[in-house]
């Protein structure tokens, strides 16, 4: 049995990224199964699925922590987060490599 999307992980609904994580789960699973099928290997072998799971868990964990951090910063009325959050968005929008990296991660590429 393989769980993907919201059945496999729960993330903050911030920016609707849960759907993107689920789509990346499916894409990675199809890639894993396709490579196994091409080589004549068992696509459902426990070791193969465990590798897929570790690969996806890493991305899902990083994403979940990032969503949680963003939520904490933007839902906090303490003076420091209030001062920092506007600058963070401004910097992310004005630094092309950072902006591209954030977009690529959100898109799963």
UniProtKB/TrEMBL annotation:
Mind telling me which InterPro entries this protein's record contains?
A: FAD-bd, FAD/NAD-bd_sf, Ubi_Hdrlase_CS, UbiH/COQ6_monooxygenase
* GO MF entries: 2-octaprenyl-6-methoxyphenol hydroxylase activity; FAD binding
Please list the residue ranges annotated as the FAD-binding domain. 2-30
This one is known as FAD-binding domain-containing protein
């Amino acid at each position: 049995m393989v769980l993907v999307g919201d059945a496999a992980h729960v993330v903050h609904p911030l920016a609707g990224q849960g759907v993107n994580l689920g789509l990346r789960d499916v894409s990675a699973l199809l890639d894993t199964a396709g490579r196994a099928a091409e080589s004549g290997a068992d696509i459902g072998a426990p070791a193969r699925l465990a590798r897929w799971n570790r690969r996806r868990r890493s991305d899902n964990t990083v994403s979940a922590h990032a969503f949680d951090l963003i939520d904490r910063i933007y839902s906090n009325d303490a003076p420091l987060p209030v001062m920092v959050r506007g600058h963070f968005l401004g910097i992310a929008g004005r630094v092309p490599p950072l902006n591209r990296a954030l977009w690529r991660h959100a898109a799963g590429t």
